[in-house]
Amino acid sequence: MSARSIFARPARLAGLAPYLWMALFFLVPFVFVLKISLSQTAIAQPPYTPVFDTAEGIAGIIAALLALSFDNFTLLISDNLYILSYARSLVVAVLSTSILLLIGYPIAYGMARLPRGWQSVAMMLVIVPFWTSFLIRIYAWINILQHDGLLNQVLLSLHLVSAPLVWLSTDTAMYIGMVYSYLPFMILPLYATLAKMDPALLEAAGDLGASPLQSFWLVTFPLSLPGVGAGALLCFIPIVGEFVTPDLLAGSNSLMIGQTLWLEFFTNKDWPVASAVAVVLLLLLLAPLLIYDRLQRRQLERTR
Amino acid sequence: MTEDTAKTAMQADLRAAAPRAAPGLPLLRIEAVAKEFGTFRAVDGLSLEIRSGEFFALLGPSGCGKTTLLRMLAGFETADEGRILLNGEDIAQVLPHERPVNMMFQNYALFPHLNVQENIAFGLRRARLPRSEIKARIAEMVALAKLEGLEKRKPDQLSGGQKQRVALARSLARRPRVLLLDEPLAALDKKLRESTQAELMELQRRLGLTFIIVTHDQEEAMTVANRIGVMNAGRLEQVATPRELYEVPATRWVAQFVGDINLFDGQIDRYSAPATMTRRLAIVTRDAGTVHAAEPRQPIARDDVCVAIRPEKIKLSRRGPVAENTPALNRMEGVVTDIGYLGGVTTYKVRLDSGAVLRSSMANTARIDLDAYGVNQRVVAWFTPDDCVVLEQ
Question: Which residues contact A207 (CB under 8 A, 6 or more apart)?
Fold first, then answer.
């Protein structure tokens, strides 16, 4: 018994580590942001009131708490700039994730069917872009997509178009950027589930009269759904909050929520509204996470 | 035959009662089939005929090509040479999903996302059977494999034995002409394996189907099969009933692979054989002196031979046997060096005076054996000429 607890204690402490991490780097900052979102702007340093002042003791803290209000959140609903930004972010994220799935699935499927040695090579090729800064890669795309860029040169030389097309500052450019940057995040989880699938299952399906296409839809695809879910979430969540890609590649007539947030923070210096935007964004993203978590847990229970 | 007519023919088969060709007729003909992987010849010009209603076992060490042969029958591999005929029709070009043959996989390959019932229904749905027929077949298979009450369980929620029965039910649901079983019981523990072997045999007899099982376990092959094909290095060494395989092995390799055996190399002495013993051969061995053996049915062409005697055919005694004067009785003397008590039998190793080691096993027919031998006991080992098998080297 005692021998067991000696070994059990460090294990239990190690089990606490992720919670500690979450508390320190997620929960505490989130509480700060939440507090700021309930404050008012002020021309001061920091640019909002009230500020907790421990010098005034408990009474000061209570006074500060009473001064908090939900005004910033009501503003988010009353001004449709914010609602439109949120909507655009969701639309962009859904569309990008769908395109990523359509492109990523065949790639991951092909990778999983390569001979063993080639699989690790393919994996390297998928990861290699991470060796260069994300920003530099987006600038490279600007180069490719600009008026006299590579894409237009190729199209012109192939006589596919008679005059250069406008790519940059369009939604197309933004989607190209999104799909390009997030493709590895879609491929890797898909590849992981597809690669560990027992090839005997496909033989069994064939043996029982399923054509190759039927085998795919009845066996491979349903069994790869956890990978589809993981890949989709890994892409969807960061894309909703994307700032760099739409800012550099898309036009400026409609903004994603990340861009709106940036404007509030740095151009308008309105920290409280920016914080409120961030809090609502987080709540929006919590929904798909919780759904995915529930699905995962149900699957785990099933295997038990 | 076009793909469509093949399909409708197969569907007709599926709808019909379990096909029962007259037993004993050749159902499957394998003609000089070969399969190469790179430079490795996994199956090397193998021919075999399997009769309808037979329980046939392919037995061999791992890497002998038995699984490759089975996979060619299922259609997962295509033969590089030769033909495979099912009911007289070449099935080389028929894709796996269009063959009237089903396979039970080694690790069952149950679909993890489907429950027991859906697993069984998978093949039936692909055959586009009417809904009511599918329902009836599922019920039939559930009863057959004793899976009542487990219909809604997923494979992860089943024990090893239950999974095995689901796999069996799934592969039988389409009523195949031939059921292929790839090491079907390897994952079960010994007790469960034995009871499952009995169930498999009972099922095969009752349904009158043709079963082809691949196994490396000779006891399993001998228990379940009517006939066994022993494979080695891509070729069939011998095709025989279990009894023939054990008592009349065709080659030295088979003799050594199936069960335990004592082998003595020697030469036939054609001159010293007395006239009274026309059906006996005298063989001068290097390690065991002159051994008298019954002449095999097939005449021995060469003089270099090998005498094989199963351990249980060799009796040990303190003194020679009573009928010591029987002229052709083989007897040799030695010292017991090793004793293995296995419950039902005890195995002995006897070092002969020539230095060779002889293995003998004797049934423990009495509970109290005051006469048991100890190590270093000097004994006489003896066996009759009829218990010897003469093999060409």
Answer: B74, B75, B76, B96, B97, B102, B103, B123, B171
